[in-house]
Design brief:
The chain is α/β, with parallel strands linked by helices and 208 residues long. The protein has a single domain (2-204), classed as Rossmann fold (3-Layer(aba) Sandwich), CATH 3.40.50. The protein has helices at 40-47, 70-80, 96-104, 111-120, 136-150, 166-181, 193-196, and strands at residues 2-11, 14-24, 29-33, 55-60, 63-64, 81-85, 154-158, 185-189, 201-204. The longest helix is centred in the last third of the chain and has 16 residues, at 166-181. It is globular, with a radius of gyration of 17 Å.
């Protein structure tokens, strides 16, 4: 369970959002929607422990992450959170194997495990290919492979379909939905109606 209570975030005199209250239960997809500048990405960063809110609390699985120090936040991000970004967050000149190994903190690629996950997302025999040779949809599926291997209980996705065509978007969304069936909590910042059709609840952000 993720619980947000009276959450606010400001930068100087500019208030991005204030007074947010909501819950996300395991096994569900929650979308964050709103116009550009409404705070979707900022809220995701707060939920992932990347930035501190200005006020309020975030509790994940009974632990109030807004009270954690830097070491506790590092452990939280490593053990609990998985990320999926619009720009894929891959190293272009590294192979698929090396990108996945790097994200997993492995000294060298565990090729059998990676191959199994790549096959799940339709990228069998892609392990030795450098990322720069892949299409946007293929790169996002490499990013999905990292989540399949990590199996984090909390997945935060920032416009994951923003650079994809509909076919690749559906592949990504079906895998995210499957992760909720396996018990994950998925939170997606989006403006894409297709993504919203997969949501169990929506949090609409507005300028304050």
């Amino acid at each position: 369970m993720l619980t947000v209570n009276d959450l606010s975030k400001s930068f100087g005199n500019y208030t991005v959002f204030s007074g947010l209250d909501f819950q996300c239960v395991p096994g569900t997809v929650t979308t964050l929607t709103g116009s550009s500048g409404s705070g979707k990405s900022t809220l995701l960063n707060c939920l992932g422990g990347l930035i501190q809110p200005s006020a309020g609390s975030i509790t994940v699985a009974g632990k109030e992450i807004t009270q954690l120090g830097s070491r506790g936040l590092l452990k939280f991000r490593r053990n609990t959170v998985g990320y999926l970004f619009q720009d894929y967050a891959l190293v272009p000149d590294k192979t698929v194997y090396n990108n996945v190994a790097l994200a997993m903190g492995w000294f060298r690629p565990r090729k059998n495990l990676i191959d199994e996950a790549l096959n799940t997302v339709g990228l069998s025999r892609y392990g030795n290919r450098p990322v720069f040779e892949l299409s946007g949809g293929e790169q996002q599926r490499v990013a999905l492979t990292r989540l399949l291997l990590k199996r984090p209980p909390l997945i935060l996705a920032d416009e994951p379909t923003g650079a994809l065509d509909e076919a690749n978007s559906i592949v990504v969304l079906n895998h995210l939905k499957q992760m909720t069936i396996d018990g994950a909590t998925v939170i997606v910042a989006t403006h894409d109606p297709l993504v919203m059709s997969y949501a169990d609840q929506n949090i609409a952000l507005t300028h304050t």
